[in-house]
Design brief:
CATH architecture: 3-Layer(aba) Sandwich
Strand content: 15-25%
CATH superfamily: NAD(P)-binding Rossmann-like Domain
Shape: globular
Number of strands: 7
CATH class: Alpha Beta
Helix content: 40-55%
Strand order of the largest sheet: 3-2-1-4-5-6-7
Distance between the termini: 42 Å
Number of helices: 8
Radius of gyration: 17 Å
Structural class: alpha/beta
CATH topology: Rossmann fold
Largest sheet: 7 strands, parallel
Length: 251
């Protein structure tokens, strides 16, 4: 039976690329979206065109009180569309960025980042444990900015640093079920993150390209296929690791 992967935030950017890459590797995909139902349905159609099963479910990962109802909707979708009752993989990708100097960061900005990137990842994964199959995989998305600093990302990077520590604890505490947990940390990528800053602002793009050993910023196609590969059977012995995928950013 095909493996089934849940990708949060899969309607655009790295999440979309990851969902499609999983399908290209022969997997079925459920993904969440916060808004933009039409965009989500377009991704479903693209995955189905690859011959794989797909479904999109609405979820705001900043609202932990919504997780029990989401799990019930997920169970129903697994039964109806995928003819199974468990997930094989979870990719915690959903997120957003805030760029503000440390001295200017507001409590509201801080809370919004931690609600999605830390609290959301923690409690959604917890809620999904009864649905995640033994021997399953968890991948949490982090950032290259947990290893090197760039002004304006103190709160965002602190949240991602918390996710990296959390991932190690997931790996340790879920290992008895054969579940692995790893962090993937992309460098600067051309997506609509931060309003498309890296993609659309030449000076910003040039600055990050100059920090990168391979001489350019990343593309979604540099990340999604790597995540899909990490979910594959050849990587079953990797757990508790932070894997940076940045083209050699600031080494």
């Amino acid at each position: 039976m095909s493996k089934t992967t849940l990708v949060t935030g899969g309607s655009r950017g790295l999440g979309r690329n990851t969902a499609i890459s999983v399908a290209r590797h022969g997997g079925d995909v459920i993904f969440t979206y916060r808004s933009g139902k039409d965009q989500a349905q377009a991704v479903v159609a693209e995955i189905q065109a690859l011959g794989r099963k797909a479904a999109a479910l609405q979820l705001d990962t900043s609202t932990a009180s919504a997780f029990p109802a989401f799990v019930e909707a997920l169970r129903a979708t697994l039964t109806r569309t995928f003819c199974k009752d468990t997930l094989d993989h979870l990719v915690n990708n959903a997120g957003h960025g805030e760029m503000a100097d440390f001295a200017a960061t507001t409590e509201a900005q801080f809370d919004a980042l931690f609600n999605v990137h830390v609290k959301g990842v923690f409690f959604l994964t917890q809620a999904l444990l009864p649905v995640l199959a033994d021997g399953g995989r968890i991948i949490n998305l982090s950032s290259g900015l947990t290893r090197v600093s760039f002004p304006g990302f103190s709160a965002y990077s602190a949240a991602k640093g918390a996710v990296e520590v959390l991932t190690v604890y997931m790996a340790k505490e879920l290992g008895s079920r054969g579940i692995t947990a790893n962090t993937v940390a992309p460098g600067a990528i051309e997506t609509d993150f931060l309003g498309g800053a890296v993609r659309d602002m030449p000076d910003y793009n040039k600055a990050f390209a100059g920090m990168t050993t391979l001489g350019r910023v990343g593309l979604p196609d540099d990340i999604g296929p790597m995540v899909a590969s990490l979910l594959g059977p050849d990587n079953r012995w990797i757990t508790g690791q932070r894997i940076e995928v940045s083209g050699g950013q600031t080494i």
